[in-house]
Design brief:
The complex is a heterodimer of chains A (240) and B (119).
Chain A: E1 2-5, E2 13-14, E3 32-33, E4 43-44, E5 53-57, E6 60-66, E7 72-74, E8 78-79, E9 85-93, E10 101-106, E11 116-120, E12 127-133, E13 137-143, E14 150-158, H1 164-167, E15 168-172, E16 175-177, E17 182-183, E18 192-193, E19 195-197, E20 208-217, H2 223-237
Antiparallel strand pairs in A: 1-20, 2-3, 3-4, 4-7, 5-6, 6-20, 7-19, 8-18, 9-14, 9-20, 10-11, 10-19, 11-12, 12-13, 13-17, 14-15, 15-16
Chain B: E1 3-12, H1 16-26, E2 38-41, E3 50-58, H2 59-67, H3 70-84, H4 93-98, E4 100-102, H5 106-112, E5 116-117
Antiparallel strand pairs in B: 1-3, 1-4, 2-3, 2-5
Classes of the chains: A mainly beta (240), B alpha+beta (119).
Chain lengths: 240, 119
């Protein structure tokens, strides 16, 4: 169970939320991006002002979020309640602006039981925080450059771990992140929640920056598979 | 359809309803009534005195917003409503005479108006 969003595949995107007007190229609003995993968790936005814009970075397409009112979300909840393990992988470029913004959040807020998130937290440019919530919340935070930079963020969450080090496996650009640890995930499986992209609950915490791809998977993976996923996301992003 | 922008639009709270009714027609998608969704005020606290948005606009809509007078704009909005099978709006005067449009950074524009976002 999970979802996969790939802005490099123009056939997966539409200008309108109902999926009738295809995206044709850079400069188009994206009202719908289909889930390529086959699970049907398409992410949509019915208000044009709130749609990210498809842009082209050399040969790489991405969704541009404006830090004002952009956001996408799944209409249906993704049921990950049967697992204590989740794999997340995103390709992004940060905005270089000191403002909080969610790259993605599973549930209406990160403190909801069974949630997970990748976010630019607080009001310090260049930070990326990656974590989740079982019976409690735990995360690692990378303090990156205050100027815009590209990042392939790869996070494995396992609420069965005994400590934050065993619960959160975080990498940015193929390098482990274990800095600025906060809390622990506690216990319990992940939840049955909607996925929000670029926003919290489509009401705030708006991401400013680029998203080159998102993978969410309700399972962990072998080391080789993890490396392959990072490499795949990096072909979309060009981070390293 | 060709899009231009994005553009920043700000309206006073008193014309939010009219603004929402206009964009329920002008937004090609179904959620146009929620276009003005960034609450603003001078001190960053409720109540909102203004509402803002940042949006791509169809090129015809942008032209209508910046180049048409009230009468012409009303005719344009009515035409679009008919084309899309949407409920026409009785008057657009309040919105057209109030909306402020800018093509730069949204937050710089808001600050230039003496406003800030309400969290």
């Amino acid at each position: 169970m999970g979802a996969w969003y790939d802005p490099s595949d123009l056939s997966s995107m539409f200008q309108d939320s109902s999926g009738t007007t295809p995206v044709t190229g850079a400069g188009d609003p994206v009202g719908r991006i289909n889930d390529k995993s086959g699970n049907g968790f398409h992410a949509t936005q019915a208000t044009t002002a709130n749609k990210p814009t498809l842009r082209l970075d050399g040969s790489r397409y991405y969704l541009e979020f404006d830090r004002v009112n952009d956001g996408l979300s799944t209409a249906d909840s993704i049921d990950l309640s049967g697992t204590s393990k989740v794999t997340l992988c995103v390709g992004i470029q940060t905005s270089g602006v000191a403002a909080a913004g969610n790259v993605m959040e599973f549930s209406v807020t990160e403190s909801t039981a069974g949630a997970f998130y990748i976010t630019q937290p607080l009001s310090v440019a260049g930070q990326i925080r990656m974590g989740g919530t079982g019976s409690s919340s735990g995360s690692y935070r990378l303090d990156g450059s205050s100027t815009p930079y590209k990042a392939v963020c790869h996070v494995l969450l396992d609420t069965a771990g005994a400590s934050i080090a065993a619960e959160v496996f975080a990498r940015v650009n193929a390098a482990a992140v274990s800095t600025n640890a906060t809390g622990t995930l506690g216990t319990g499986n992940f939840g049955n929640h909607r996925l929000f992209i670029g926003t919290r609950n489509d009401t705030g915490v708006r991401f400013g920056g680029r998203i080159y791809g998102i993978v969410v998977r309700g399972a962990t993976a072998s080391a080789d598979d993890r490396d392959d996923l990072e490499a795949f996301m990096n072909t979309k992003t060009g981070a390293y | 359809m060709a899009y231009v922008g994005p553009y920043n639009l700000v309206v006073s709270n008193g014309v939010l309803l009219n603004s929402s009714d206009v964009f329920a027609i002008l937004d090609p998608d179904s959620g146009g009534a929620s276009t003005f969704n960034v609450a603003l005020s001078a001190n960053g606290q409720l109540p909102a005195s203004h509402w803002g948005t940042r949006t791509l606009l169809q090129d015809t809509t942008h032209n209508a917003l910046v180049n048409m007078n009230v009468t012409q704009f009303k005719a344009y909005v009515d035409q679009v409503a008919a084309e899309r099978g949407r409920q026409p709006v009785g008057s657009i005067t309040a919105f057209k005479n109030n909306v402020q449009i800018d093509g730069g950074d949204f937050w710089a524009f808001v600050a230039s108006l003496g406003l800030q976002a309400i969290p």
